[in-house]
From TrEMBL:
Residues 1-308 form the Protein kinase domain. This is CMGC kinase. It comes from the Eukaryota. PROSITE patterns: PROTEIN_KINASE_DOM. GO terms for biological process: regulation of RNA splicing. GO terms for cellular component: nucleus. GO terms for molecular function: ATP binding; protein serine/threonine kinase activity. Keywords: ATP-binding, Kinase, Nucleotide-binding, Serine/threonine-protein kinase, Transferase. InterPro entries: CLK_kinases (IPR051175), Kinase-like_dom_sf (IPR011009), Prot_kinase_dom (IPR000719). The keyword Transferase applies. The keyword Nucleotidyltransferase does not apply. Transmembrane segments: none annotated.
Length: 310
């Protein structure tokens, strides 16, 4: 739902006008219908989207019944293809519900602008595997924009932002931001954990990036005021253990235990990445995580990478 916007201003409502024969279009969530509601808080344009399954991370892997690694790579490929579709169109991606009555603590009447009840979203996590497909769907185009008209800032979570945006460099927002975010997404899909976490502030995020990818370009390094809190002038880590790389992050296995009703362990499931796959995926990610935005490989190049051919 979007307040005081018409359908032409909402990217979700205009995506259906794009050429749906281009590969990747099938992985974009297109509205089935749209309508407007007039209320005390203005005009709200509403989109009706198809029912979708759970997010592809962080625990979807525990439900995959076939080759888990192959399935996750397939989801990663589909995600890249969906972004390729958007970029070819010069767009950046930047049962019954329960109802509870809403009351004030004092029992007083609510202002007319307040809702009379809240509708909880359907608990998609509990959806049975028989209702799930092996295809992803990209949603939420509220921060999308055309290549030709980038916004002044991005409203996406900081842990998906590239360093040039975190450092507030001029003209930083554009397609290359999507490519950095794609790298974060591919890691999260395959490993089922984020590469960077939301608990970090901007300086901690940049410090993690330097540990993964090396010292920032000199002009960025000088611009980053907190760099001396984390590194020496040569970019050497000052806080204990220094071994840190994508390869190490990709090598860490994940494991969940199956328990019966008495909390007795009856089995376990592991998610691992082979050494060969670690090397290939790290190679792809390093190309998406180039500091110079112009050096990051485009989606079309990424789709040809050997990691997707495993």
């Amino acid at each position: 739902m979007a307040s005081d916007l018409n359908s032409d201003e909402i990217f979700d409502a205009t995506l259906a006008d794009l050429d749906q024969s281009i590969p990747g279009a099938q992985y974009i969530a297109l509205p089935l219908d749209q309508f407007s509601i007039e209320g005390p808080n203005g005009s709200h344009h509403c989109l009706v989207l198809p029912p979708l399954g759970p997010c592809v991370s962080p625990r979807l892997w525990t439900r995959l019944e076939k080759d888990t690694a192959a399935s996750l790579r397939k989801f990663a490929y589909q995600t890249t293809l969906a972004l390729d579709f958007l970029h070819k169109n010069e767009i950046c991606h930047g049962g019954n519900p329960e109802e509870n009555q809403v009351k004030t603590e004092t029992g007083e009447e609510l202002p007319i602008s307040n809702p009379r009840y809240l509708v909880y979203p359907a608990d998609i996590i509990r959806l049975g595997n028989e209702y799930l497909t092996d295809e992803i769907c990209v949603i939420d185009f509220g921060e999308s924009f055309k290549f030709s008209s980038p916004p002044e800032d991005l409203g996406i979570p900081e842990n998906y932002l590239p360093p040039e945006v975190l450092l507030e460099c001029p003209n930083a927002i554009g397609p290359a931001c999507d490519l950095w975010a794609l790298g974060c997404s591919l890691f999260e899909i395959r490993q089922q954990i984020p590469l960077f976490y939301m608990i970090y502030d901007n300086d901690e995020l940049i410090a993690e990036m330097v540990r993964f990818f090396g010292k920032l370009p000199e002009d960025w390094w000088a611009k980053w005021e907190a760099q001396e809190d984390w590194f020496d002038p040569d970019g050497k880590w000052l806080r204990g253990e220094s071994k840190f790389s994508l390869e190490i992050a990709l090598s860490k296995p994940r494991e969940v235990l199956d328990m019966d009703e008495n909390y007795k362990v009856v089995g376990k499931k592991s998610l691992e990445t082979s050494e060969d796959e670690q090397k290939l995926m790290a190679d792809l990610l390093y190309q998406l995580f180039k500091y110079d935005p112009d050096d990051r490989i485009c989606t079309e190049e990424a789709l040809r990478h050997e990691w997707f051919k495993l």
